[in-house]
Design goal:
By secondary structure, the chain is of the alpha/beta class. It has helices at about 15-30, 40-45, 80-90, 105-115, 140-160, 175-185, 200-210, 230-240, 260-280, 300-305, 310-320, and strands at about 5-10, 35-40, 50-55, 95-100, 120-125, 165-170, 190, 220-225, 245-250, 285-290, 290-295. The termini are far apart.
Length: about 325
């Protein structure tokens, strides 16, 4: 049984990371285990930005977006020398295991660190893209999807008033999950995702036909990996002759107070991660499958690509 562990958040921030860190910390403390917080992700690991935490350090954070520990990109950690320095910094403080909350890149770094040093590592999937293999859910995806829906509701009002086409770009460089679930629940007529090819000429022809039948407005949601709204919008305007506007949500999707789902699920995952790392388990990621917490092999999680559920793509076409 480990007596001292550390927890860090890494990569892009996502709502619910604070809830996960809070659960890891208080679960470990409840088991009589020391908990260290690492500020600034892998950057803080190398620069020794670490502090021993007590229960009050994670008070008043569950309702906050972002991550109170902070996060940063770290090129030095991508080198063997950087990873060995990080390992040394952990050992010097008597830290025996590490919990990493982050997305694909962060978990990949954790997997490499574990292989090279043997230190026990447990990962939690923290990314709004919901693209970690083996899990139906990642921390922050629900809040981000609801942020997009809120924007769509507002855009629909002005689109209807002016009979406009709105092209909305959302995050999702390699995964169209956010665009797809927000598009379906927000009533978008078209959803463009990187997982599925599309014919923009055919879409524009269909738009003209729908307007000729009396359509008042159209919402198109575009995942950034499928194309840039700033480029697609002018093409749509030119080919349809219809009033077209472009909107890009950008980093607003990452912020905001976490939803109930993100708070509860992140807390569940945090508890499981703490108990697992304390017991000496390593090289696993905790996620959800059909509503239940499951453990996923860390190597498999970072070396397999999660695919977009074809049911969503079919449903989007049927309901458009």
């Amino acid at each position: 049984m480990l007596k001292s562990i550390a927890v860090m958040t890494s990569g892009g921030d996502s709502p619910g990371m604070n809830a996960a860190v809070r659960a890891v910390t208080r679960t470990a403390l409840h088991q009589g285990v020391k908990v260290w917080g690492i500020r600034g992700g892998y950057h803080g690991l190398l620069d020794e930005e670490m502090f021993e935490m007590v229960s009050k350090d994670v008070s008043d954070i569950i309702q906050r977006g972002g991550t109170f520990l902070g996060t940063a990109r770290c090129k030095r950690f991508q080198t063997p020398e950087g990873r060995m320095l990080g390992y040394k910094n952990l050992v010097d403080r008597g830290i025996q295991g590490l919990v990493v909350v982050g997305g694909d890149g962060s978990l990949r770094g954790a997997s490499t660190l574990s292989k090279e040093t043997g230190i026990p590592i447990v990962g939690l999937p923290g990314t709004i893209d919901n693209d970690v293999w083996g899990s139906d859910y990642t921390i922050g995806c629900d809040t981000a999807a609801n942020t997009i829906i809120d924007a769509m509701n507002k855009l629909r009002d002005t689109a209807s008033a002016h009979r406009r086409i709105i092209v909305l770009e959302v995050m999702g460089r390699n995964s169209g999950w956010l665009a797809m679930v927000a598009g379906i629940s927000g009533g978008a007529e078209y959803i463009l995702v990187p997982e599925e090819p599309f014919d923009l000429d055919a879409i524009c022809e269909n738009m003209k036909e729908e307007y000729a039948k009396g359509k008042r407005y159209i919402l198109m949601v575009v995942a950034e990996g499928a194309g840039k709204a700033a480029e697609i919008g002018p093409i749509v305007a030119e080919k349809t002759g219809l009033d077209t506007r472009v909107s890009k949500l950008g980093h607003i999707q990452r912020g905001g107070s976490p939803s109930v789902i993100d708070r509860v699920k992140a807390s569940q995952l945090g508890e499981h991660a703490a108990l697992a790392i304390i017991s000496g388990l390593s090289d696993i990621v905790f996620g959800f499958n059909r509503g239940h917490v499951v453990s996923i092999n860390l190597h498999d999680a970072v070396n397999n690509k999660k695919t977009l559920d074809p049911m969503y793509m079919r449903l989007a076409k049927v309901l458009a």
